[in-house]
Amino acid sequence: MSKDAKPVQKRIDQFFSGPGGRADDWRDLVEAAKVWARGGDRAKYDAVLADLSVTEEFHGYPGLQLMGALREAAATGDAATSLALATRLTQALTTRSFRQHAGDWSAKDEGNGEAPDLVPQVFGTHAARRPYFETLIVTGVPAGSWSVLANEWRKLRRPVDAFVYEPVIVGSLEDAFCATLLNPNLAAVVVNEGFGLRSRHDAPVLRAMASSAGLNDESDASALRLAHIIKRVRPELDIYLMSNQDVEAMAGNPEANVARRIFYSIEDLLELHLSILEGVQDRYDTPFFDNLKKYAQRPIGTFHALPIARGKSVFKSDWIRDMGEFYGLNLFLAESSATTGGLDSLLEPTGNIKKAQDKAARALGADRVFFVTNGTSTSNKMAVQALLAPGDIAIVDRNCHKSHHYGMVLSGAQPLYVEAFPMTEYSMYGAVPLKTIKQALLNAKADGRLDRVKLLDLTNCTFDGHIYNTRRVMEECLAIKPDLIFLWDEAWFGFARFSPFLRRRTGMGAANEIEAWMHDPKSVAAYEKQQAELGKNPSNEVLLKTRLIPDPRQIRLRVYQTNSTHKSMSAIRQGSMLAVKDVEFHTVEQQFKEAVFTHASTSPNQQLIASLDVSRRQMELEGYGLVANAMEIALAIRQAVNNNPLISKYFRVLGADAMVPSQYRQSGFTDYLAAGVNWANILKSLDDDEFCLDPTRMTLVCGTAGFDGTQFKGILANEYNIQINKTSRNSVLLQSNINNTRSDVAHLVRVLAEIAGEVDRGLAQGGPNAKKTFEARVKSLMTDVPDLPNFSHFHPSFRGDAGTKTNEGDIRSGFFAAYDAAGCEFIPLRDPEIDRRLKAGPELVSANFVIPYPPGFPIMVPGQVITQETIDFMRKLDVKEIHGYDAKEGLKLVRVEALGKIGRPKPGAAPKLKSA
Question: Quick one: pLDDT at residue 124?
Fold first, then answer.
């Protein structure tokens, strides 16, 4: 920036900077203060301080007094004091010492010479600490009186309080909205009447959004309206309404149910203070974990089959004592196979596990939640088994996790596979277009088989980050079949509930929006208007092109969502939750119990259940900030990789424009880092686009550096201690989560720069031959890629009762056909017999699932007819891990003569049940 250029004023409606961005701003302030203190130009310091002063209004610390002291030091030209105070405040924010040390709140350095805690408190001994949070106070009191008001709130604090909180005061609806988004430390909101609509600061994007929401006049800034806005953005926050009018009338208003409690504003604040603490305590309580801690401290004699309980067999042993020392005593004290004495049964919970599940349901926006201790693979199979019976048809993403396919085998349901859009260049699939799903439903309707289609089973988000427009999918499907059940496998997307941007794209988030829409009188009018436009018998072509509106009077909302809690929250491995929002759940409740009995262990791990309980607590109290940080980390990685001159020569993180074809990005959104993109652009994309890209999932192309995905994954793990999960032929998947830090970003960027440098030097020093070899390698990885095979069809032997327009099949019979060894054969993949039979027959029919990693989905399922494209793909695969295929034996196929016997009962066996 030139000396004559004017600094651009910071706007409050740019929300890309999360916790890390705020920390950077404070470090910039310290650096500018150092320059000024050394006799340099103070203009940079003034500019940074002016920017900070705007957004720091929405945080409890440093607060009004300390920010005022900073501005005063600058106004008097005191560079030394400015540097000292800015440094102290930045250090307190970085170490979070202000949450416990009273001296951090003084403008004067009142330190006792002790260094702040830089090490997480899990290490070493430490005194008990009261968790700290902040409470947003929305008021009509003039800003000049806010310091006095804040002091009145602080006077309410008592030594016996379990928590300590700091007030954050704002005076307008726009500022309250911004504080809700910018401040992850908020746990409660108090809304008084009499506040204004507009912020004092620049917020053009926010103004446009507010106008579209009908917020144009100061009279629109009502307490109840603001409460609804805040609840929509951050549903975990407790809201308290303060009315100085007819408080009884407000309390009786059904729309006031967003508030935890309503107070008459002239009454004293102690009850409100106690209510705020009680509300946080309600979220802080972990019924199962709390009881498990108490159980571990009791003197108990164990006469059940669990020798390690109480740890005696471990700590008295000379041979396995090291295991006890590694894990610690509490792990063993908390072990038990009992379901009494303060514990509970996971199979039929009635006590603290039930209470913990109810709290999880509240956190996820569900009616009920099941805890699952053997992974989301089991959650998926439980849901499929409980919701489907033999002969039912389920529309299933063919590229879904194998647990769904096996769930169909267990239930006897018939999968009707639908295909995702291919991303051949990167050897991966996207998600299933809505048009494909609607076509499957319309085909079933034309065949007179729509009544048998019970379930739509999709993965959201996909492994590679493709997110469905869940609301649109459900609404349009319900317009065709009003009682269709939806199962959203959100194994990788559980964190999204705690992001106001991503929540709308979750199964539960969309279900709650649909439920609210159903009760809006305008919904019936919208449906009837569309029906009038469509006419009595619209063609399938018209229906496929139209964004269908369901009849809200006919909808039976039935939504299930599975989350791998351990994949995105602080749960122990295999911790999963199954969330339910189903108006017909009473009709399947017994089936769910049977599914639990079928799949859940009778000896579930207590620590795992406790971690599910605790992970819910964490996400309700700090999940918003943790998820915001994970998204910020991901954007920092994208920026660092794609804008680094050396790294970007050989690596790049794919943007939304590369991951989602343009026809599915109706808003025109291209990428999170594109010029001019702000939170309003992203919001429009999330509302309108058929598919979006999860910002926390980053596909890093490594084929352009000459590495295949598996090779590069090994290099990162073995040489640089960087672990990743998924690979493709020419890419690896990076994923940020609530565990990552800016240090992780720095480590990754340094490693990529080092590897890129090695590639660069190798090409420069190796001469023409090295360059030629490198280019050939890149071409083989990036250009000579195999076409991805689609699902072909089930063999007629497994389609005895199938329709003419649909492609479902009896996968269960196909699966068990492989149990007849004499009825199966093996043919090596490159045997000419394969090619002869593809041309002349008889057909090749798979006897099992074949799942290559990557891409990690079944390219063959039991009973499927194998086609040329599948064989070509298999022959071009250069991956080592292929489940269901032994290269020495070859493809396992169902013999032709055995196909004719499928479905026929064996002598003495019970006859096969006909499909329902």
Answer: 42
Q: Are 265 and 190 in contact (CB under 8 A)?
A: no
For 600, the 3-state DSSP assignment is coil
Q: 175-210: string of b/e by CB count within 10 Å (b at 16+)?
A: bbbbbbbbbbbbbbbbbbbebebbbebbbebbbebb
Give the count of beta carbons closer than 10 Å to the beta carbon of residue 20.
17
Q: What's the rounded Cα separation, in Å, for the pair 418 and 400?
A: 10
Q: Tell me the two tokens of residue 895.
A: 């013999």
Q: Which residue has the tokens 């492989």?
A: 818
- Per residue in 290-328, pLDDT (tens digit) is 999 998 888 877 777 778 888 889 999 999 999 999 999
HEC secondary structure over 426-474: HCEECCCCHHHHHHHHHHHHHCCCHHHEEEEEEECCCCCCEEECHHHHH
Does the predicted TM-score (pTM) go above 0.85? yes
- H or E element that contains 881: strand 881-883
Question: In the numeric block, which tokens belong to residue 751?
Answer: 């490693």
Instruction: Name the band, by pLDDT with cuts 50, 70 and 90, for residue 178.
Output: confident
The closest of 133, 210, 202, 136 to 168, measured between CA atoms, is 136
Q: In sequence order, what are the beta bridge partners of 561?
A: 488, 579
Q: How far apart (Å, rounded) are the C-alpha atoms in residues 485 and 454? A: 6
* Distance between start and end Cα atoms, the chain: 73
Residue with tokens 């090490």: 119
Side chain identity at residue 916, one-letter code: A
Can you tell me whether residue 863 is helix, strand or coil?
Answer: coil
Query: Which amino acid is located at 741 in the chain?
Result: T
Q: What pLDDT is attached to residue 20?
A: 74
For 773, residues 6+ apart whose C-beta sits below 8 A from its C-beta are: none
CA distance 771 to 783: 17
Q: What is the 3-state secondary structure (H, E, C) of 70-88?
A: HHHHHHCCCHHHHHHHHHH
Q: How many Å apart are CA 5 and CA 559, to the nearest integer?
A: 55
Which pLDDT tens digit goes with each residue over 357-402? 999 999 999 999 999 999 999 999 999 999 999 999 999 999 999 9
Paired residues of 692 in beta bridges: 467
Lookup: tokens for 15? 């929300």
Question: How far apart, in whole angstroms, are the C-alpha atoms of residue 544 and residue 561?
Answer: 26
CB atoms within 10 A of CB 803: 17
Q: What are phi and psi of 393, to 5 degrees?
A: -110, 135
> Helix, strand, or coil here: 617?
helix
**For residue 421, how many C-alpha atoms fall within 13 Å in the half-sphere facing its CB?**
17
Which pLDDT score is estimated for 877? 79
pLDDT in tens, 211-250: 666 777 777 788 999 999 999 999 999 999 998 877 777 7
Cα–Cα distances in angstroms (integers) from residue 203 to residues 61, 218, 398, 655, 692, in the given order: 23, 16, 46, 28, 26
Residue among 465, 429, 427, 463 nearest 782 (CA): 427
Q: Which amino acid does the sequence have at 179? A: A
For residue 906, the model assigns a pLDDT of: 46
Instruction: Look up residue 33 and give its two tokens.
Output: 């203060």
**What are the C-alpha distances in Å from 513 to residues 395, 579, 778?**
23, 16, 47
> In Å, what is the CA distance from 524 to each residue of 482, 551, 555, 647?
14, 7, 12, 55
* Nearest CA among 340, 326, 331, 342 for reference residue 309: 331
Which DSSP string corresponds to 306-338?
Answer: -TTGGGHHHHT-SSSHHHHHHH-HHHHHT--S-
Q: Give the span between the Cα atoms of 824 and 841, in whole angstroms.
A: 16
CA distance linking residue 614 with residue 208, whole number of Å: 40
Please classify residue 888 by burial: count the beta carbons closer than 10 Å to its beta carbon, then call 0-12 exposed, 13-18 middle and 19+ buried: exposed
Report d(CA 203, CA 877) in Å as an integer.
53
- Cis peptide upstream of residue 62 (ω within 30 degrees of 0): yes
Q: Within 13 Å, how many C-alpha atoms sit on residue 797's CB side?
A: 25
Neighbours of 780 (CB within 10 A): 16
d(CA 841, CA 798): 18
